[in-house]
Design a protein that fits this description.
The protein is α+β, with helices and mostly antiparallel strands. It has 2 domains: about 30 residues; about 160 residues, no CATH class. Helix content is about 45%, strand content about 30%. The protein starts with a helix and ends with a strand.
Length: about 190
C-alpha cells in the first residue's frame, strides 16, 4: 500500500468516526441530566402530599397577609415547592403548562434558583435547566438574571427561549419583560 493510499484510508476512517460519533455525542449531550435535577427527584407518598399541602397553606396565608397586612413575608422550601409541582401543578393546572414540559423541579441556594424540567418534542428529549440569580430590586418586582440555560449539557441561546416564555406569560396576564444587562439575560416580573 502506498503512502497516498494509507493517507486516504486514515482520512476515510477519521471521517467515518466523526460521522458516527458526532450524532452519538450530540445524543449523549442531550440525555445528560444535571446532578441538581437528579437530586430533586420526588419521592411519592404521604410525605410529598403533606409537603404540597403545606405549600398551598403557606401560599394562601401569604395571599391573605399581602391583602391585609402592611408587612408580610413567607418562606418556602424547595421540598414544598417540588411536592406542589408534582402533586398539584401538573394535575390541576396542566393547561397552563406547555405540553412539552414534564416533571418540573426547583432548587434554592443562597441567591440562586435552579429550574429544571423534562422537555419532550418529537424525538428530542432533554432536561432543560436554568440557573438564575434572584433579586427583589423594589416592592412587587422580581428579577431573575439567567446565568446558565442548558438542554442536557448543551448551552441554549437565551433570546428565542425568553421571547417564547415572555409571550406565553403575557398571554396569561403577567407583566413580564426581558433584556440583556451587562450581557446577561434578565427577566423582570411585576405585580
Amino acid at each position: 500500500m502506498t503512502r497516498a493510499q494509507r493517507c486516504w484510508m486514515v482520512g476515510g476512517v477519521i471521517v467515518l468516526a466523526v460521522l458516527t460519533l458526532g450524532p452519538l455525542a450530540l445524543w449523549a449531550s442531550l440525555r445528560y441530566q444535571p446532578a441538581v435535577y437528579v437530586k430533586m427527584a420526588q419521592t411519592p407518598g404521604k410525605e410529598r402530599e403533606q409537603s404540597a399541602q403545606q405549600f398551598v397553606a403557606s401560599g394562601l396565608q401569604l395571599r391573605n397577609d399581602i391583602e391585609n397586612e402592611p408587612e408580610w413575608e413567607a418562606v418556602f422550601t424547595d421540598k414544598e415547592v417540588n411536592a406542589w409541582l408534582a402533586e398539584d401543578l401538573m394535575k390541576d393546572f396542566a393547561r397552563e403548562v406547555p405540553p412539552q414540559v414534564q416533571e418540573p423541579r426547583v432548587a434554592f441556594e443562597t441567591g440562586l434558583v435552579t429550574l429544571a424540567f423534562q422537555f419532550h418534542q418529537g424525538p428530542m428529549k432533554a432536561v432543560v435547566w436554568v440557573v438564575a440569580e434572584a433579586e427583589v430590586p423594589e416592592p412587587n418586582t422580581l428579577e431573575l438574571s439567567l446565568l446558565k440555560i442548558r438542554a442536557g449539557a448543551l448551552p441554549v441561546p437565551a433570546d428565542e427561549v425568553l421571547e417564547n416564555l415572555v409571550q406565553f406569560a403575557r398571554q396569561r396576564g403577567a407583566d413580564v419583560k426581558w433584556a440583556r444587562v451587562d450581557g446577561v439575560p434578565r427577566i423582570t416580573m411585576k405585580d
